[in-house]
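User: Before I run my own analysis I want an independent prediction to cross-check against. Here's the chain; please return only the structure tokens and, at the end, one sentence I can use as a sanity check.
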Amino acid sequence: MNCTRALLASSLSLGTLASLAAPAGAQTLPTQSVLQEDAAEATASTAPSAFEQAFTSEEVVQADPRVIEAMDWSNEQAEELLGVIRTIDAEGLVPADYLPEELAAALSADDAQQVDELASTAFAWLVEDLRDGRTPMANRRQWFVVDPDADRNPTAKVMANALETGDIAGALEALKPTHPDYAALRQKLAETPASDTEERRLIRANMDRWRWLARDLGGQYLITNVPEYQLRLTVDNNIIRTYRTVVGKPGRTATPQLAETVEGVVFNPTWTVPQSIVRGEGLGERVLNNPSWAARQGYRATRGANGYISVVQQPGAGNALGVMKLDMPNPHAIFFHDTPNRQIFNQDERALSHGCIRTERALELAMTVAILGEGATRDEVVDIYTSGEYTRVPVKKTMPAYITYFTYGVDIDGNLRQFDDIYDRDEPVFASLDAPRVRNRARVSSEEVIEIVDDPRDTL
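Assistant: Structure tokens:
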């Protein structure tokens, strides 16, 4: 035990921890009403009838942020906007989506009202696509990340600031993702010939995926790219540590895409066995009827008065969750955890689990998160782990955890390359990029939330 303690302490030296802690197709010519039309369509089905209004007390209704009033544009500002539109293909977007011909005609005719309305509309659509992504939620399969950028930078505020400062291009530039991987994809798009339509489409799709995330991911976070089978501990967008992963099998147990928060670390976890195993595989009866075998496996079973059997695997070397899991509450029941079957990390294809993400060197990861989160000191986490007892260590400094899905991106070695589309999630994104721009897009997925009933024993 003393040797174990010394090894654990040395693997997390103070110097190491210090380094970790460092810092749309054809569009009709819009009028004033077009700016409000998207939101009106979204709320029409829920608007109260005249009868309901007559018998409802007056209440304050918050204005829909998607209703954008046309603002006053000078010709110079509209010309600058037109210049941005004509070069927006550098961001993987389509210039024709943003009314360039209509705006140019209004400027040529010196029609101030049309310039105001067209420029306001085009600018608003550009803000939406650069800030939130062009792909509608219906085409983002199992994407449950809620992007906060629309709340942080409302469209009307961005437009008002741009017109006040006169820096139209700068206001739009400030909406783009800051992650260096987005810049790498942008550069690759610039280098890819127009004739290579398949590669350009793949690059554009993955550039858009970066816009689905928060523009600023935070100073310190975990991020995993599911098709790469890798987890990164990142500080200031620089990779500090990487860990190979095992992710969900294709199908109903595929790992969904999430942005969650690590609130604590569980050392020496227990595993509450799902009823699909307790009853479906007869584990409950086996544990009750074979206590010596159950003890060797670490299982404890209880039978209630109604005959219901629950089985919990106690902490230990054979526990199906290994020696740790990261506590990141979410309705999908997805988390990062260890595994006693560590040889599976040597396989190239690792879409093997029931949805949760297994990580190599999990104890190192758990201790690092606990220490960086100021949940425990280095010596305390060593004591906690070596005790062999179930212990949850809450962290004072929570850490974002992003579970993403990129099929073209920068790998852990710094090389830009393709990854297998293991869940067939590219095609819906391609289809949306090839179709006219969709207005009135939802911000939250309406897909079914599948609570993962994980069997961490399963590796086949």
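Sanity check: The chain is about 40% helix and 15% strand.
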